[in-house]
Write a structure and sequence with these properties.
The complex is a heterodimer. Chain A is α+β, with helices and mostly antiparallel strands. Chain A has 21 helices and 16 strands. In chain A, the strands form 5 sheets. Chain A has a 5-stranded mixed sheet. In chain A, strands 12, 13, 14, 15 and 16 form a 5-stranded mixed sheet that branches. In chain A, strands 4-6 form a two-stranded antiparallel ribbon. Chain A starts with 18 loop residues before the first strand and ends with a helix. Chain B is mostly helical. Chain B is flat. Chain B has a domain of 51 residues. In chain B, a hairpin with a 6-residue loop joins strand 1 and strand 2. The chains are: A alpha+beta, B mainly alpha. Chains A and B meet through strand 6, helix 1, helix 2, strand 15 and helix 4 of A and helix 1, helix 3, helix 5 and helix 6 of B.
């Protein structure tokens, strides 16, 4: 959208030419008195985003700016703000930004020395009007101000153009409110005017809601602005709502012509730009460097450990040498000084240290290999020796060995079993393959039949479990099952437990809770069906297997769960007549009321003349096909009062 | 500020020659931005002279039209056609058996949203 250029002829207007401002809920228009069109029109909104690089908060008025330039601003935490609440201005800070922008675009540079004519809603609260006057006088220093109702101005213009007569009715529908103002001999009858809090905003919102309900997948891409654009471009007011409906219901050719197909703008997903050669090389080098560092660190650690272990070994060997040399009776004192209990312990420590040293140096661990090669009997020598031939310590050792032996055997058995199963499955597959090659047609048939059977079983099971609660959108989701609704398995089980409990306990005196087992009942009752039984799992596994097999060999096969998604749900006409039901009934009655009230001011002959001349002023925002029976209702009124 | 942003003149200049009081003087930066403006409801309430107004003179409150006396027309919630039927379970209005099937397929949340659209949803608090 183009930006608004600054007007350059501001100085040409004499100070007594008024500036005219139409301060509307959706659009702000400003221009010079005496000209037929406003100079500047923009949406009456303000956005205050932050500039991305400098971090300054800036003010952007209107939404007509080039979206390409908006990328320099961080708009995520700001949204469009309007100075209006309903049809009354309440946010004068925002109003000031809007006025600043409008006067700046109009070309004002040193002062605003023109009278201003500004529109406001009918019966504007006094505080709102006084604040507006205060803002204009004190901040802009304007010489004078006049307020007026836009609908009345419009009527007067239409009267001048000869579109309507002295007497008439204005129906002015704005963004959030609609007014009905009767005119009598050129003067508005304020006593008889009416407001209904419905406007173009509600129509757009309704359209947006409907679209996002119909296409939940695209709900995020249907914004209010988009819906507004759709409404303005494609919607229309039906002259006779009933017959228009019939048209679409019958699905005639005319309806087909009126149907609009509209596609959401498709944004291609951002293409992944692969890293360049250079970058790849850089990354590889970096990785290599890091790897080298890690390797170096590991090597250093290893050498430290090796030297540590060597030192330890040396110390132990020295200790052993010492023990060799000294007398028998000195041994205990040396041992206790070194922190060992017996010579045997030192030996085992030496063994341990040498083993870990070997491991650290990366030499093959001899003992491990030996252990693997050795038969079970050799590894556990004590197991087969009777208890009475062993010392208590050995008996302890024997127990340990027995335990180790059984677990090792178990592992081996499991391994064996796995291998066997693998073989069996291989064999089965081969057999199946043979069968298939023998008679492909029959085999496929069989497989399909089996698939069908299984999938039905699984599905039924599921249905029983959930009782189809999910399918029909009703109010009772769980627990609150009405009469005639079937209970699911868990609920049935709970009911059964409750009833049995009630009848059992009800007989004699109440002893519930005397025994601990009584309380188990609660556990049973609160158990969920989610605890799946084995058979079900098996069925599902089998189903998965068959379906994968079918997918491999049958090109036409589509798994059932996906298949159910393919044919679309029944399609409804893409055009959906907009009906706001209650709201618009309300709106119509406002019109009627205004007519009734203004009746007081008419004589009978005047009335019939008047009703003919009722003019409607649509500010365009309500141009959707929703003001259904405007005409019939008015006809009704005419019958009623004339 | 980028040259194209400056060229497009989309950003409102902070100081304007024709103003007597500049924005920065009126709303100094140090003060909290959240300057409270009275909403329309508060505005109307504070204007208690509405009560002192003679009842036969129009003001913002009394020109609002009362709710309609006429029964609302019944339209299908899904298609917008005239709806002779109501689904007793979901309370949605529908025009034809096909729509009924569709209604029964709808998730609970959508049913509620359709009802809200015509102000018929039961709000449980």
């Amino acid at each position: 959208m183009p930006s608004i250029p600054r007007q350059s002829d501001y100085w040409r207007f004499s100070p007594d030419t008024p500036i005219v401002i139409d301060n509307g809920g959706s659009h702000f228009r400003i221009g010079w008195a005496g000209e037929s069109d406003p100079r500047i029109t923009f949406r009456n909104v303000v956005q205050r985003p932050r500039h991305r690089s400098t971090g300054d908060t800036v003010t952007i008025v209107g939404d007509h700016h080039d979206p390409a330039n908006l990328k320099y601003f961080d708009c995520t935490r700001t949204s469009y703000r309007s100075p209006f609440d309903n049809n009354v201005v309440y946010q004068y800070e925002i109003m000031e930004y809007v006025l600043d922008y409008a006067l700046d675009r109009l070309g004002a540079d040193l002062k605003v020395d023109h009278p201003i004519l500004m529109t406001e809603c009918i019966c504007n609260p006094i505080s709102s009007r006084s604040k507006m006057a205060e803002l204009l006088f004190e901040t802009y220093g304007i010489p004078s101000i006049a307020f007026g109702v836009d609908a009345a101005f419009s009527y007067k213009l239409n009267q001048q153009l000869g579109v309507c007569n002295e007497d008439g009715l204005v129906v002015c529908s704005g963004l959030t409110t609609s007014h009905v103002i009767p005119f009598l001999s050129g003067e508005p009858v304020i006593d008889a005017c009416c407001r209904t809090n419905i406007g173009g905003y509600h129509v757009t919102d309704y359209l947006k809601q409907l679209l996002s309900l119909k296409y939940p997948n695209h709900a995020s891409s249907i914004s209010w602005e988009k819906a507004e654009e759709l409404k303005r471009e494609h919607c229309y007011v039906a002259s006779d709502y009933q017959s228009e409906l019939q048209l679409f219901q019958k699905g005639t050719k005319e309806a087909e012509e009126k149907t609009r197909y509209w596609q959401l703008p498709w944004v291609p997903p951002p293409r992944e730009v692969g890293p360049s050669e250079e970058e790849l090389a850089r990354k590889a080098a970096l990785r290599e460097k890091q790897g080298q560092r890690l390797r170096d660190m590991a090597a250093a650690k290893k050498s430290v450990r090796i030297s540590e272990l060597e030192n330890e070994l040396q110390g132990l060997e020295d200790l052993l040498d010492q023990l060799e040399e000294v007398d028998e009776d000195e041994i205990p004192s040396i041992l206790s000084a070194a922190g060992y209990v017996s010579r045997h312990e030192i030996d085992s420590a030496v063994l341990r240290v040498t083993q870990s040293l070997r491991k650290a140096k990366g030499e093959p661990d001899e003992s491990e290999d030996k252990m693997d090669e050795a038969s079970l009997a050799e590894r556990f020598p004590l197991v087969n020796i009777p208890d009475d031939m062993l010392t208590p310590e050995q008996i302890k050792e024997k127990r340990k060995q027995t335990f180790l032996k059984t677990t090792t055997e178990g592992r081996l058995r499991a391994k064996q079993k796995r291998v066997e199963e693998e073989l069996l499955r291989e064999k089965q597959n081969q057999e199946e393959e043979e069968k298939r090659l023998e008679n492909p047609e029959q085999y496929l048939e069989q497989l399909r039949a089996k698939y069908k059977e299984l999938s039905e079983k699984v599905e039924q099971r599921k249905r029983l479990k959930t009782n189809g609660n999910r399918t029909n959108g009703n109010q009772n989701s769980s627990g609150n099952t009405g009469r005639g609704e079937r209970l699911n398995a868990a609920q049935r089980e709970r009911m059964r437990l409750l009833t049995t409990a009630a009848f059992d306990r009800g007989k004699g005196e109440d002893t519930f809770g005397a025994r601990d087992e009584d309380w188990q009942l609660y556990k049973l009752m609160s158990k969920d069906v989610d605890e799946e039984d084995e058979g079900q799992d098996e069925n599902e596994a089998e189903l998965a297997r068959i379906s994968s097999r079918l997918q491999d060999i049958d090109p036409e096969f589509v798994p059932k769960f996906e298949a159910s998604l393919l044919p679309g749900t029944p399609e409804f006409p893409r055009y959906r007549p907009l009906t706001c039901g209650k709201h618009f009934q309300h709106f119509l009655s406002a019109v009627e009321l205004a007519i009734q009230m203004s009746c007081k001011y008419f004589s009978s002959p005047q009335w019939s003349e008047w009703i003919k001349q009722v003019s409607m002023r649509w500010s365009g925002s309500l141009s959707a096909g929703s003001l259904q029976s405007m005409k019939p209702s008015r006809a009704e009124c005419a019958v009623l009062f004339s | 500020m980028e040259p194209e942003v400056v060229r497009s003149e989309m950003v409102l200049p902070p100081v304007l020659g024709f103003k007597k009081i500049q924005m920065a003087d009126k709303y100094p930066k140090g003060q909290s931005r959240a300057r409270h403006w009275k909403h329309l409801k508060q505005l109307l309430q504070s204007e208690n002279n509405f009560q002192s107004y003679p009842p036969n003179e129009p003001n913002y409150l009394n020109i609002e039209s009362p709710p309609s006396m006429y029964p609302s027309k019944k339209f299908c919630d899904i298609t917008g056609f005239e709806a002779p039927y109501v689904d007793p379970r979901t309370k949605l209005r529908y025009a034809s058996p096909e729509v009924f099937k569709h209604i029964r397929m709808l998730p609970d949340e959508h049913v509620q949203r359709y009802l809200t659209l015509r102000n018929a949803a039961v709000v449980l608090r």
